[in-house]
Design brief:
Length: 223
């Protein structure tokens, strides 16, 4: 019998690292003001949290950000934590260890997945084979990694950045541990550039308006 989502997810803690909202998405700077970029980043974070909660996961951690991120996370019932390390990978490495120490498998998710749904989170967890495998979700472009599940008690170093998916596969091979790859649709697309946004609006008309409902015209004004 297939395990129900809430049974699978009860021993997994999603971990979402964040920058201060106004410091993110700098490649959108020519089309979006700083406050608009912050609104967009907050909208995507809400969507990621909604997918986590829709997958019947009650506990999630968001690391870093700013006061607005802190309020958003606490309003959604999550746990906000301050930065733990020197950089993104160091922070995640420490967070993975902290999760393992508390008896959880760690599930890294970026905060900028505009298409993520509960089914994507559930698929990633199911791909782990009852948390027996390191599980990776590749980005659709740029060789990145948009999800990592590390079973409790396992040691695995995040290597996010250029060609991170290949680096993660190579690390697992060196460790001689099994790897599952999850190609769930909502985990494949992160949002970094104006081209991304234009493409995604074609894929899901009205996406920007749903991410940032208070933008009356569905798009940014001229900065």
């Amino acid at each position: 019998m297939m395990t129900e989502p809430h049974e699978q997810s009860s021993t997994v803690v999603p971990i979402i690292p964040m920058k201060p909202l106004a410091e993110g998405k700098t490649r959108l700077g020519r089309q979006f003001s700083q406050s608009q970029r912050a609104d967009l980043a907050a909208g995507m974070l809400r969507r990621v949290i909604s997918a986590i909660k829709g997958a019947s996961i009650e506990l999630f951690w968001v690391i870093g950000g700013d006061d607005r991120v802190t309020r958003l996370v606490r309003d959604q019932g999550g746990i906000w934590l301050p930065e733990m390390g020197r950089n993104l990978n160091d922070t995640l490495s420490k967070a993975f260890a902290a999760a393992s120490g508390e008896g959880y498998s760690a599930l890294y998710l970026p905060g900028d997945l505009p298409f993520i749904k509960p089914s994507d989170v559930i698929n990633l967890i199911r791909s782990s084979g009852r948390r027996n495998n390191i599980t990776l979700a590749p980005a659709r472009r740029d060789g990145g990694t948009n999800g990592i599940l590390v079973p409790q008690g396992s040691f695995f170093e995040p290597e996010l950045g250029q060609r991170s998916f290949a680096k993660h596969l190579a690390q697992a091979a060196r460790m001689e541990v099994s790897v599952a790859i999850c190609y769930s649709p909502g985990l494949g697309f992160d949002l970094d550039t104006v081209d991304d946004l234009e493409t995604y609006e074609q894929m899901e008309p009205g996406l920007l308006k749903r991410l940032v409902p208070h933008w009356k015209d569905g798009g940014p004004s001229t900065p």
